[in-house]
């Protein structure tokens, strides 16, 4: 399976991980509709929805750039309708848009808390909801949400409880959709990296140049997403996956290709119990 001729609706794909996923699909000749707020260049953020569309088409795909806010249901519905009108349907929905703030409870302003909830959880729900009627008619339809496995180890809660709630909320949407849509043959999975990925958020909020040196490139996410989205939708659903595990299961034995610098331990323990070999199924 590949993504040739498939139509992908993706939120927040004007840069970083979202754009990397879009470009990987474009190499197969996919149609990519991207909704994002960045219409004009930002001093700290590379790219706009229009430069992303140019890159997608240069990579071999067809692009539909849409300026919109996924917190607004009407804007999302209009964007989905525009996508269906242009490309004839939707086969894949990627929930990439997300907001991050790692402040603790005493420091976090409630408007920042609300922003994360509205973009991460509500936005994922709204985008998925708008796409589902078209996914039901799609070819090998998938919903992919970029959020982590739910782990209640306390170290993932403090001091950024609000952000963790917002990201786990996205995962709950993904897993809930998997059950709701199982009989219809629409897959829904969550996907998350084991390590930092070199994005503007990492550069600006999570450690600057040193963090970027220890990170992997966005291609680790893009390649893992591609593996997930090309699996049979009726068989491969309801999972909260890690990028590196997906790639190892697909036969990748050297993850050093994804190194963004020389500071990260990018090795993977390939030892697996022979009775339970790694598998995407």
List keywords for this structure.
281 residues; alpha/beta; 9 helices; globular
Quick summary:
With 281 residues, this protein is α/β, with parallel strands linked by helices. The protein is globular. The C terminus is likely disordered.
List the helices and strands and how they pair.
Blueprint: E1 7-11, H1 16-26, E2 31-36, H2 49-58, E3 62-67, H3 73-87, E4 92-95, H4 110-135, E5 142-145, H5 161-180, E6 187-192, H6 200-205, H7 208-213, H8 219-229, E7 240-242, H9 243-249
Parallel strand pairs: 1-2, 1-4, 2-3, 4-5, 5-6, 6-7
Task: Provide a descriptive summary of the structure in words.
This protein has 281 residues and is an alpha/beta fold. The protein is 40% helix and 12% strand. It has nine helices and seven strands, in the order βαβαβαβαβαβαααβα. It has helices at residues 16-26, 49-58, 73-87, 110-135, 161-180, 200-205, 208-213, 219-229, 243-249, and strands spanning 7-11, 31-36, 62-67, 92-95, 142-145, 187-192, 240-242. A seven-stranded parallel sheet has the order 3-2-1-4-5-6-7, sandwiched between helices. α1 packs across α8, α3 runs parallel beside α4 and α8 (219-229) crosses α9 (243-249). The longest helix is centred in the middle third of the chain and has 26 residues, at 110-135. The radius of gyration is 18 Å and the shape is globular. The protein starts with 6 loop residues before the first strand and ends in a 32-residue tail after the last helix. 44% of the residues are buried. The model is unreliable at 265-281 (pLDDT under 50).
């Amino acid at each position: 399976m590949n993504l040739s001729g498939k139509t992908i609706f993706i939120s927040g794909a004007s840069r970083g991980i979202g754009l990397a996923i879009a470009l990987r699909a474009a190499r197969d000749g996919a149609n990519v509709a991207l909704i994002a707020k960045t219409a004009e260049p930002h001093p700290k953020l590379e790219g706009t929805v229009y430069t992303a569309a140019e890159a997608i088409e240069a990579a071999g795909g067809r692009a539909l750039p849409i300026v919109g806010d996924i917190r607004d249901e009407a804007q999302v519905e209009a964007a989905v309708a525009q996508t269906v009108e242009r490309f004839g349907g939707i086969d894949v929905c990627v929930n990439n848009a997300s907001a991050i703030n790692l402040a603790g409870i005493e420091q976090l302003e409630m408007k920042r808390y609300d922003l994360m909830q509205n973009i991460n959880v509500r936005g994922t729900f709204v985008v998925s909801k708008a796409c589902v009627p078209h996914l039901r008619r799609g070819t090998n339809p998938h919903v992919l949400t970029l959020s982590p496995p739910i782990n209640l180890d306390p170290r993932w809660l403090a001091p950024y409880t609000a952000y963790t709630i917002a990201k786990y909320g996205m995962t709950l949407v993904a897993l809930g959709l998997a059950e709701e849509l199982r009989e219809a043959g629409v897959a829904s999975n969550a996907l998350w990296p084991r390590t930092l990925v070199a994005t503007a958020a990492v550069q600006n909020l999570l450690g600057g140049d040193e963090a970027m040196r220890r990170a992997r490139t966005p291609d680790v996410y893009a390649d893992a997403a591609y593996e997930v989205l090309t699996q049979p939708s009726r068989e491969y659903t309801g999972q909260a996956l890690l990028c590196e595990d997906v790639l190892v299961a697909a036969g990748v034995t050297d993850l050093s290709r994804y190194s963004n610098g020389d500071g990260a331990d990018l090795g993977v323990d390939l030892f697996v119990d022979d009775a339970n070999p790694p598998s995407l199924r």
